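lol ok so funny story. i was supposed to be doing the assay writeup but got distracted and ended up predicting the structure for this chain instead. priorities right. anyway since i did it might as well share w the group, maybe its usefull for someone
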Amino acid sequence: MPYDRIGVIGAGAWGTALANVAVRAGRAVTLWARDPDRAAAIAQTRESPHLPGLRLDDRVAVTADLAAAARADAILLTVPAQALRAVAAALAPVLARATPVIACAKGIERGTGAFMSEVIADSAPQAMPAVLSGPSFAADVVRGLPTAVTLATADVRIAATLAQALGSATFRPYHSTDVRGVEIGGAAKNVLAIAAGIVTGRGLGASAGAALITRGFAELMRFGRACGARPETLVGLSGLGDLVLTCSSRQSRNFALGVALGEGRSLEQAQGRLAEGAFTAPALVAMARDHGVEMPIAAAVDAVLDGRLSIDAAVESLMTRPFRAE
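and the output, tada:
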């Protein structure tokens, strides 16, 4: 199947960006917004309120009719991780059997500890779960700036065909069958990016920032291996690549949240935009504990977000850990 028709579910920043990606690749694209007034406004202005000043391609159809958007060969599900279950369940009755549903959110579901592919499998069992992740900011992607990501699903032929269907001169998807490895990279890096932002906001210096990214990646690797992820996935775009990007730019909502916390703002004051890492942190730490994996940086972030540790106490706890071989 060539996957000529693409439905994009969610008209936020990432949905707008990926709608542009798919139409540039020559696909027929329908973008779904939950609110009819929002859909009408986007259709008229060709602009998402989440990406002011950046244009949605004129070839993208915009609708508030979920069934119309679901009449597609493949679905890009771009809603936030904690909303994904409800939207996937709403999609289920209007999806054709075996339609690829590609989760584009990076997180772990709060309460269940489920990864996004598991949420899709549970909520829309007739769908084929897939994930798309990697170092990518929506504003760069919607502008058509060069970006590379990883697209994974269990069937290698379908993964390769989907990558071909979405790829273009400026958007390069690498395909994989390591669904869990791709998901772990996307979820864990958000938590670690909050830590990197705290380092920046606290003024701890570039040396501390580099150490944080390096030791955070060691945690990601340990957790990934314990969960069966392939090493080449973890050192690839959806692991190391996304970690480096997210830990180094205020365009990252997770990094920006950490900066605000490091500067002394409360969690309530700091949460101006959705930061998936704030929801993922407790689930990630609980899963690491269940697998017997040490993730001290992720645990410190969870404790700071939960109010169990101050930032200064968290930094001290990390710096006074026993000396050991690298």
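The beta strands are 5-9, 28-32, 61-63, 74-77, 100-103, 128-133, 147-153, 171-176. The mean pLDDT is 95.
back to the writeup now i swear
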